[in-house]
Design a protein that fits this description.
17% of the residues lie in helices and 24% in strands. The chain is α+β, with helices and mostly antiparallel strands. It has a six-stranded antiparallel sheet with strand order 3-4-8-7-6-5, with no helix packed on it. The longest helix is centred in the N-terminal third of the chain and has 10 residues, at 5-14. Bound molecules: zinc ion (ZN).
């Protein structure tokens, strides 16, 4: 990574995104072109997604939006259970891999299994970030950062709106 933390902040401020993106390592979204070119097991028309999803779910899952930090009750969900895709019920994350990252978004150090999620590269804020989406329907979930806990060192920063919680 060529930027120091300070120069990154200056960069973000210089691009005028500071207000919209106060924390660099947020779940900040963006339309991910690569995602649109792929086909998924669960494929619906835009009209079908709009009918099925709430307004906020549609904004996050289908338009790669980002929920406000600390706005999702799932951020504080500590019970044993499984987090599934709000769009297609695909099992995404398990409570045993969840941790409190202090960012205000539900955070996990790994997905529930290989193949649960897919990734693409997102240049929305000018530096490459790893976008993460549901492997079954392509719905945008959040981003993956390299400042998570061991053993993976990964932080899956996920919009709570993009998921439903199924208690064990
Ligand atoms: Zn899905």
């Amino acid at each position: 990574m060529p930027f120091t933390l300070t120069s990154r902040r200056s960069f973000i401020a210089a691009t005028g995104l500071a207000a919209a993106m106060p924390v660099l390592a947020s779940c900040g979204g963006g339309i991910v072109e690569a995602r649109k070119e792929r086909t998924y097991r669960i494929s619906k028309t835009d009209a079908q997604w709009r009918r099925q999803l709430t307004r906020e779910e549609y904004r996050i899952l289908r338009e790669a939006g980002t929920e406000r930090a600390y706005s999702s009750p799932l951020d504080n969900e500590g019970r044993p259970g499984t987090f599934v895709c709000a769009g297609c019920n695909n099992r995404l994350y398990a409570s045993v891999h969840k941790y409190d990252s202090g960012t205000g978004w539900p955070s996990f150090w790994r997905p529930i299994d290989r193949g649960a999620v897919g990734t693409s590269v997102d240049y929305k804020i000018g530096v490459p970030r790893t976008e993460v989406h549901c492997a079954d329907c392509g719905g945008h979930l959040g981003h993956i950062f390299g400042d998570g806990p061991q053993p993976t060192g990964k932080r899956h920063c996920i919009n709570g709106v993009a998921m439903d919680f199924i208690p064990a």
